[in-house]
Write a structure and sequence with these properties.
With 597 residues, the protein is an alpha+beta fold. It contains 14 helices and 33 strands. Bound molecules: guanosine-5'-triphosphate (GTP).
């Protein structure tokens, strides 16, 4: 055990975590240069294409240092806020962390939020100044930022480059010399914390864990403490580039278990594995059921594909336990599903996977957060509203609550004004303002989560010219003056376009939505009024003029094949159109509310 080192890599997105991990794998001979593909750890196609790590992975490296053999377990963590719970569990499985900071960018919001997570778990922090090869690298300045942030000495900061391999040996030395060996008692009852799981179509769920105490033996009967389920430890072992089966995995080590679990949602990240014969008395602390933060309806473009969509969603859920869904129906869109996601990125990923892996064409409705509604006649009962069109009649409501977040923005001082204005417009309240260096500021706001869902990232990027990074975490529900804004097309209310908005924004938003929809919905044979309404009161209106002529009219008497081509072209264009009443509505229109500025 004294020669084991468990560490993770934490960084702001794109600061070069995966690339540096690849260099460590090469330097320790875990992967040969020939086998080396860029970002070997990101094995999903989608990950590779988007260049982001979606699920965290673990890998064991062997390294000899001053004549002694060491086992280094690297736990890779996802960098995006949508997956921050996974980051926290990965961190809890380690004793040390490489804190990677891009030398050309400096400290960013997730550098800090991930660092706080690591410090909460008392990890030894090894700061790494990455991308030193870049001409724009600012080593002194960024080293100062790091020193200020974690209170280390400038000599503790390792200059490195994932591209050239600079600093890789120093990093390996630091892991061995500075990260403490795991503690724990190999003779105690088994206590292993699951920090990740993946779904394999042939073998079922593979859970990754860190053994805190005791030893797990192949074939033993095990129990997952929080779910209460028991399994047989059919296959256990350690993780190299592949799974390496072992007879036992002991205290301090990181391993996998395969036990015939067919559904991803049976395995919860953060849960504790123990044995049935000699169970531990306590689960590992910090277990949380991950809750979806953002909801949206997903509907098949063609109503006949509903069953196929259900099948596809079920398949997806098998390997993504954070996806939740239930059937819903919409007067406008027919039968579909209300789905819960960890965040907007997660939503996009699911939509993309449905299309790529399952060849489904779907319509996604306006995303929203989850609201709590309290009725006047029974104010103690909390109703959970995941779909704005299900909000009870306002006259019966005592109050409505919405989720709030604490948001951290790091930026250059010249953009403070613009960012403050944006945050205030988004109903944010400034809590704190701290200068990290002379011209870098950390701003802390409390604001409604719903405002983040609605185009916040894009706006932040624009007003700060890209010089702002952002992170957030939920802080609970608060009551808000929310009302339901409805949209009527051709006189008919379209439930899939309803949104809950703050009363003070309703008029402004209603107007903007009508204008946007007018842009997005193509002209048709008849005039289409677009109206925004609160209850029965119309607050805004635009009109889409009728098309003057039938598009095919000019072909009459002409070449028949030309006409057919034209019709086919139209059909192509219709792929993402949904018939709502008499009106053809394109997919973009359902997301119009997100793109109003
Ligand atoms: P996530 O997994 O999405 O959080 O990103 P990451 O932090 O793992 O970053 P990644 O390793 O994917 O690198 C981001 C980008 O920076 C890629 O385009 C890399 O090629 C580039 N990059 C990484 N390290 C270096 C480096 O040392 N020098 C230079 N010049 N580019 C680098």
């Amino acid at each position: 055990m004294k020669n084991i080192r468990n560490f993770c890599i934490i960084a702001h997105i794109d600061h070069g975590k995966s690339t540096l991990a690849d260099r460590l794998l090469q330097a320790t001979g875990t992967i040969s240069d020939r086998e080396m593909k860029d970002q070997a750890l990101d094995d999903m196609d989608l990950e590779r294409e988007r260049g982001i790590t979606i699920k965290s992975h673990a890998i064991q490296m062997n390294h000899t240092h001053e004549g002694q053999a060491y086992t280094l377990n690297l736990i890779d963590t996802p960098g995006h806020v949508d997956f921050s719970y996974e980051v926290s569990r990965s961190i809890a499985a380690c004793e040390g962390a490489l804190l990677i900071v891009d030398a050309a960018q400096g400290i960013e919001a997730q550098t800090i939020s991930n660092l706080y997570l690591a410090l909460e778990h008392d990890l030894e922090i090894i700061p790494v100044l990455n991308k030193m090869d870049l001409p724009g690298a600012m080593p002194e300045e960024v080293t100062d930022q790091i020193v200020d942030l974690i209170g280390c000495s400038p000599t503790d900061v390792i200059p490195a480059s994932g591209k050239t391999g600079l600093g890789v040996d120093k990093i390996l030395d630091a892991i061995i010399n500075r990260v403490p060996a795991p503690k724990g008692n190999p003779d105690a009852p088994l206590q292993a914390m699951i920090f990740d799981s993946v779904f394999n179509p042939f073998r079922g769920v593979i859970a990754y864990y860190r053994v805190i105490n005791g030893t797990l033996k192949k074939g033993e009967k095990v129990k997952f403490v929080n779910t209460g389920r028991t399994y047989n430890a059919d296959d256990i072992g350690i993780l190299k580039m592949d799974l390496v089966p072992k007879k036992e995995v002991s205290t301090g080590d990181v391993g996998y278990i395969i036990s015939g679990i067919k559904q991803a949602n049976e395995v919860k990240v953060g849960d504790t594995i123990t044995t049935v014969a000699n169970p531990c008395t306590e689960a590992v602390k910090g277990f949380e059921d991950v809750k979806p933060m953002v909801f949206a309806g997903i509907y098949p473009v063609d109503t006949e594909d509903y069953e196929e969509l259900r099948f596809s969603m079920e398949k997806l859920q098998l390997n993504d336990s954070s996806l939740v869904f239930e059937p819903e129906s919409s007067a406008a869109l027919g039968f579909g599903f209300r789905c819960g996601f960890l965040g907007m990125l997660h939503l996009e990923i699911i939509q993309e996977r449905l299309e790529r892996e399952f060849k489904m064409t779907v319509i996604t409705t306006v995303p929203n957060v989850s609201y709590f509604a309290y009725l006047r006649k029974n104010p103690d009962e909390k109703l959970i509203v995941n779909n704005p069109s299900e909000l009870p009649d306002p006259s019966t409501l005592e109050k409505v609550e919405e989720p709030f977040i604490k948001a951290q923005v790091i930026t250059k001082s010249e953009y403070i004004g613009a960012i403050m204005t944006l945050c205030i417009e988004k109903r944010g309240e400034l809590q704190n303002q701290v200068y990290l260096t002379q011209d870098r500021v950390e701003l802390t706001f409390e604001m409604p989560l719903a405002e983040i869902v609605f185009d916040f990232y894009d706006r932040l990027k624009t007003v700060s010219k890209g010089y702002a990074s952002f992170d957030y975490f939920p802080i609970g529900y608060k009551s808000s003056d929310l009302i339901k804004l409805d949209v009527l097309l051709n006189g008919e209310q379209v439930d899939a376009l309803s949104a809950l908005v703050h009363r003070s924004n309703a008029f402004n938003l209603g107007k903007k939505i009508c204008v946007k929809l007018k842009e997005l919905i193509p002209r048709q044979q008849f005039e289409i009024p677009i109206q925004a309404a609160i209850g029965s009161k119309v607050i805004a209106r635009e009109t889409i003029k009728a098309l003057r002529k039938d598009v095919t009219a000019k072909c009459y008497g002409g070449d028949i094949s030309r006409k057919r081509k034209l019709l086919e072209k139209q059909k192509e264009g219709k792929k993402r159109m949904r018939q709502v009443g008499r009106v053809e509505v394109p997919q973009e229109a359902f997301l119009a509310v997100l793109k109003l500025n």
